[in-house]
Amino acid sequence: MAASVQEQAGASETGIDACDVVVVGAGFGGLYALHKLRENGLSVRGLEAAPDVGGTWYWNRYPGARCDVPSLFYSYSWSPELRREWRWTNRYAGQDEILRYAQFAADRLDLRRLIQFDTRVVSATFDERSERWIVETDHGGRLTARFVIMATGGLSVPNTPDIPGVADFKGEIFHTARWPQEPVNFEGKRVGVIGTGSSGIQAIPMIAQAAKQLIVFQRTPNFSVPARNRPLTDEDHRSFDEGLEAYLASLEQSDFGRVPPTAFAAEVPPRDVQWKHYEKLWQEGGSGGFLKAFPNILVHPGVNDVAADFVRQKIRETVKDPKTAAALSPEGYPFGVKRLCVDTDYFDTYNRANVELVNLREEPIEWIAAAGVDTAKRSFDLDALVFATGFDAVTGALLAVDIRGRDGATLKDAWSEGPQTYLGLTVAGFPNLFTITGPGSPSVIGNVITNCEYHVDWITECVTHMRRHGLATIEPDEEAQVAWGRHVAEVADRTLFPKANSWYLGVNIPGKPRVFMPYIGEGYRTTCKEIVADNYRGFTFGVSADRERAAAE
Ligand code: N01
């Protein structure tokens, strides 16, 4: 039986709780970190702002919330036991099922006793004398740890735009990423939704079914493909099990390899061949097939244009009113370089009599009044307003904590011109601080659970190496970090990704530097492994001050 939070954390000389590792966040990354590090003999402590585990799946419980990665893959890959004991019901699991899975994993692994819930970390300061982090919480709690792991998630700080007058609105206000625990009843109500990203696109069809009237305020139309969600069959489970070994091996080699070395490396198939393939993928459902339909789809403008035309054609075929169809059709940015949305009946929803699309490009929102939303042309009376306006992604949750490294330098200052990391795992000047799915790693691209797992495995190996060799600190060299940042940017620049104003670039947050944050190069894991094999190339380890003193005496 594992030790409890109190047993795990001893009292330090200062009387402050002390442990080896503080893990901030109890989503999938944080839970696995707690488990794996404890298994490796470290005393660990988890701090979580929410009252329960689950991270983003705890908060995003809006109607229609569902994962866009198939559930058989959106699971811990490292545990045969968990796999055996949990059976997904649907091809794409809904938020409630994913949250139950996180709760099941936490219970099965006996992790809750390690986590202090309802506790937000407000600061983490590296004390150079003791070479330990001092972590402070919003309850006034303090604890010290040799290592801090920020498992705070890439999509956890909601973005609520500062629209004038919002405080005057007399109706109910919701944000998709802070949805209430209790069911929300829209029956008989006039509801407005602002935002048509993945969250809005999932919520809109569900709200339309419940509400008397739904007004969708759209600034930028998005590409979306059908999920074609369905219950999983025995055959689905069998075929997943049969392919499991190959799937696990594929994760080891390279988890993300969408970027061929040059834009025109792969041949351009004839348009009708591409079209036929997209038609097949459209019928199958899901985004994964589209994003990998052709090796250069996210690189070659000509190939990408065909996919964009295909989706626009589908919108025209589905939406009966041509003006609405035109307004829903994305133009002016490539296909798939903003997160490709996956929906159920999204475009068809605009054929309902109780749904109206307001194109904010033609009539921007000017004011939110007590009664509803005023655009440049009209006033819409509303009983409820839903913000589906996304997140301060990737860096938001890291910068929400006052993190101070060597010489009291703040992470905020270090990242004032955009995040700088080595491998998306570590930051120069911030020893023994690890970021799970941090900027400069695959992060929010692809399957975030397996991205988290890889980082936890890497950190565990690193910490074990340090303990074995009596090393007190690890931090990346400035030059290695700069070179990695350059590489991350170069890879992105070889693609069409920077051509869209997406949250990947931080442009949705006023004042945030325009930097492409995820790493989308090939063979990320191979690179990380090579760096370790090359004696942690680009890192500097520090011997503990005690050992140095002992050696000098
Ligand atoms: O957020 P978004 P999201 N006035 O940033 C609009 C993951 N996720 O929560 O594009 C009017 O994509 C904004 O308009 P514009 C997934 O990775 C996954 O939907 O800035 N509109 C946009 O339409 C996803 O990509 C799943 O012009 C304003 C919308 O709000 C990520 O989370 C489900 C505005 C925000 O879209 C984020 O998705 C849900 C303003 N002032 C989420 N400000 C699945 O797994 C913003 N907008 C399926």
Automatic annotation (TrEMBL):
Keywords: FAD, Flavoprotein, Monooxygenase, NADP, Oxidoreductase
Pfam family, one: FMO-like
Keyword Flavoprotein: yes
InterPro entries: FAD-binding_Monooxygenases, FAD/NAD-bd_sf, Flavin_mOase-like
Coiled coil, from the record: none
Cofactor: FAD
Keyword Signal among UniProt keywords: no
Homology family: Belongs to the FAD-binding monooxygenase family.
Protein name per its UniProtKB record: NAD(P)/FAD-dependent oxidoreductase
Organism field: Reyranella aquatilis
